[in-house]
Amino acid sequence: MAGSRHGGDPSGRDVAVAATEEALTAVFREETGRLTASLVRVLGDFAVAEEVVADALLVAWQRWPVEGIPANPAGWLWTVARHRAVDLVRRDSRHAGKLALLAAATPQQAAHADEDDRLRLLFTCCHPALSHEAQVALTLRTVCGLSAAQIAGAFLVSETAIVQRLTRARRKLATAGIPHQVPDADHLAERLDAVLAVIYLLFNEGYLTSTGDSAQRRDLTEDAEWLAALLARLMPTEPEVLGLLALIRLHRARADARFDVAGRLVLLADQDRGRWNRAAIAAAAGLVVRASRLRRPGRY
């Protein structure tokens, strides 16, 4: 069928697959965390939320090259994920009370989920009931969408070890009944180290990626900056937060000059400074000044 559509030329299928990859990458980056956060909020179950979102992406991967990319990819994925969630909930009496919430949920609600949804998910993953390693791994997987292989590279352990760590973390959150929420001001500090570590590792993976054909992944560095900025709005007088955001912005300011046309890394001394983003550097310098005035220096 695909062959007849493209006149028997396999390159037509290649073009469709490439378009699908590009669209899925964009949707995964921008919407998966939001979809997962929305489903966790409704279901209270990390494993189920991740499973149905992954299933939706798989269905898209199979159907979009043949049927075409929908006009609203995020809404399409939400609908498929919600239907899958309903199917799973119907089979499990423990979640029976969630059916009405799922039935009432709409793609618009998921698409317009506010920043608090992502923050709730971030801080839930970093609950002190989990080990530091589990906090970071679960957040990188659930909030940031990194694969088990990428997380394993960040921790310098095997992929199997990361999968086991994620499974134990999800089980711990479920059995302990840990609420899906941003903690109050008195308890923010006890989770801050883990949250900052997650954002830093996400940025590090994008700045010089450990997997794939590209040496860098700007989508991950952009996500890290976005999360750091979100945290800075929540905790504007925390110097470590301001410091990490400044660090990320200073490094991203040189993104256009870090590699030559052949993809080879250009050392700092050899970079064309005319290609550096001066506005980003100025903004980062302002953050450093703000953080310094608080007189509580730290690692960032």
The number of distinct helices, counting runs of at least 4 residues, comes to: 14
Number of strands: 0
Helix fraction by DSSP (H/I, runs of at least 4): 55-70%
Helix-strand category: mainly alpha
Largest sheet: none
Summarize model confidence as the mean pLDDT.
79
The proportion of strand residues reads under 5%
SSE ordering: HHHHHHHHHHHHHH
Q: What radius of gyration results from the CA coordinates?
A: 21 Å
Spans where pLDDT lies below 50 across 5 or more residues: 1-7
**Form type:** globular
* Termini separation: 55 Å
Descriptive key words:
mainly alpha, disordered N terminus
Describe the structure.
There is one protein chain. The chain has a domain at 1-113. The chain has 14 helices and no strands. The chain has helices at 2-5, 10-43, 46-67, 73-91, 99-104, 107-111, 115-125, 132-142, 148-155, 159-176, 185-207, 218-234, 239-252, 278-293. The longest helix has 34 residues, at 10-43. It starts with a helix and ends in a 7-residue tail after the last helix. The model is unreliable at 1-7 (pLDDT under 50).
Write the layout of secondary structure elements.
Blueprint: H1 2-5, H2 10-43, H3 46-67, H4 73-91, H5 99-104, H6 107-111, H7 115-125, H8 132-142, H9 148-155, H10 159-176, H11 185-207, H12 218-234, H13 239-252, H14 278-293
Helix pairs in contact: 2-3, 2-4, 2-7, 3-4, 8-10, 8-11, 9-10, 11-12, 11-13, 12-13, 13-14
